[in-house]
Amino acid sequence: MTASYPGFPAESVSTITTGATDIHVRKNLRVPMRDGVNLAADAYHKPDDAPRPALIALSPYGKELQAYSLKMPGQYRPSVTWDGCIEAGDIARVVEEDYVHVIGDLRGSGYSEGTHSGNYNAGGVPLGEDAYDFIQWVAEQPWCDGNVGMIGTSYFGSMSVLAAAENPPALKAIFVNGGHYDFYETTYHGGVMWLMPRAAREGRGGDSGWAFTDRVTSRVLDEHTPEEVQKMVEERLRDPDVAGWPNMFHTLMYPKHHEAWFDIVLNDLDGEWYQERNPNELAHQIEIPSYFQIAQGRGWTMDGTIEMFDKVSGVKKLDILAYPPMNSRPFVDAHDEMFRWYDYWLKGVDNGVMEEPAVTVHVEGSHHTETGDSFPTKDTEHRPLYLRPRHILSDRPEPLSADYAEPEAFTQLPMTLTNDTAKLSWATPAFTEPAEMQGVGAAHIFAAIDQDDTNFILRFFDQGPTGQRQLITTGYLKASQNELSPESTEGNPVHPHTSKTPVTPGEINEYVIRVYPFAATFMPGHKLVVELSNNEPMADEHNALLPPDAFHLPIGRRTTTTVYRDAEHPSRLLLPYVK
């Protein structure tokens, strides 16, 4: 059953002036979908009605919010007006570059009709299907010349991929900045819940959130009886991490107005619920020219972006940008490269963009650029760095047994009792010559915990001679989700995250943690520092650059983690050194 939004505003046409630019605005266009639902859209272009290429932005964040780019310059963290949901691009710049900027509300959001069920399923209609209809409608309008691209970062980037996988004839190319692809990994990193999607849905911590009224429904509530839902909620609350966090408890008790987040909290394992709309599973269908761009500092987005680049067919580019991980809102820092791409593919401008290498990588530390046909751009080999006593990382294993190289432990109290993050750290000696690394790695941690589950959180830093540090990459693993997939290889572990096996308290296990991809050169005088913890600090030199909700769900009970690094338990890192 399709519900309509009774407040669908009337269409209007006006001209506004922003700086030196006059912009023709077509408000509240009704874009028909194949099932009769109308989506709402605004179109911005130069005052004349000459047909131009169109760049389409689609999301549930509300087209009215995106218009903030007309009255607010791009905001960078830690600006208090940085809003993670203003992502459709700089409207004035798009118009100035002689494109039509079309911003639409997904069904069930903003001023569009219909309902939105769950997180990635719009009332039973694939989001890509609606994108197909939207693109073809725009291409047929007299103010569009029939050539269409997609625009926007993060959620908008994911929509670009979903649209391209449907192969609408008018979509000639996509440029994807900062997209999220593997939908399970968007919220559960190594099985550890990331809280920022809550902000994007509900509007917290610097995000305006999804522009939903009463037309979003929970798929869990829609597909299960009240008795089944009650059992699911009771089971989820047996996890002390969830039960110990007030927002989790509140969401499970009162899902109304939290439906999208409610569904995510209840679905903490990968499987059909996430895979049915997973862009990575659709990537092989994309044949149009595709440009993927991602900043370093949030490893799971780099992981998904590289996987997406590897899977798509046809002409493609990958651009791995410099740290920090959060770009401006809107993403004005990526516009120059985006217009070069679209000028070539949508306007036929021979600007040399296709004469450049397929892959461009900013290497942290040395701050130089590497190019090639794939990532890593150079041959690499995984070399071990062993965790040793006295907080040392060494290329030589520990020769002594546990009787002489005693384990070390840390105890993390729940956040209800402390704001402190307990951790252990290890560091290399200062490098005497540059050491470049590119790619994915692994951590093999032999540990015992006194509970049946916990979080393993690894953070890797480049520490300079003055003690100043920069995050290089991360790794996460829920201890109960330590199972490895058959496709795992040395230095490249993959976990299915489809089941849990409670840990036997006190038992020593080898936990294999995926170290997300990175590119860094450790310069002479610098050290590689790795920290192991169960929680993240609420604020430090890295987290200060992120929105307030961009951390992981803390553990909810006192937990002691004992790490073994002796001859029988060779805890180690396997990192991708460039040969």
From TrEMBL:
* Protein name per UniProt: X-Pro dipeptidyl-peptidase domain-containing protein
InterPro entries linked to this entry: AB_hydrolase_fold, CocE/Ser_esterase, Galactose-bd-like_sf, Xaa-Pro-like_dom, Xaa-Pro_dipept_C, Xaa-Pro_dipeptidyl-ppase/CocE
Tell me which residues make up the Xaa-Pro dipeptidyl-peptidase C-terminal domain.
339-574
Q: Which organism is it from?
A: Corynebacterium maris DSM 45190
Origin superkingdom: Bacteria
Keywords annotated in UniProt: Hydrolase
Region entry Disordered, spans: 481-503
Q: Where is the composition biased (Polar residues)?
A: 481-491
SUPFAM superfamilies listed in its UniProt record: alpha/beta-Hydrolases, Galactose-binding domain-like
Q: Name one GO molecular function term.
A: dipeptidyl-peptidase activity
Q: Is Lipid metabolism one of the keywords? A: no
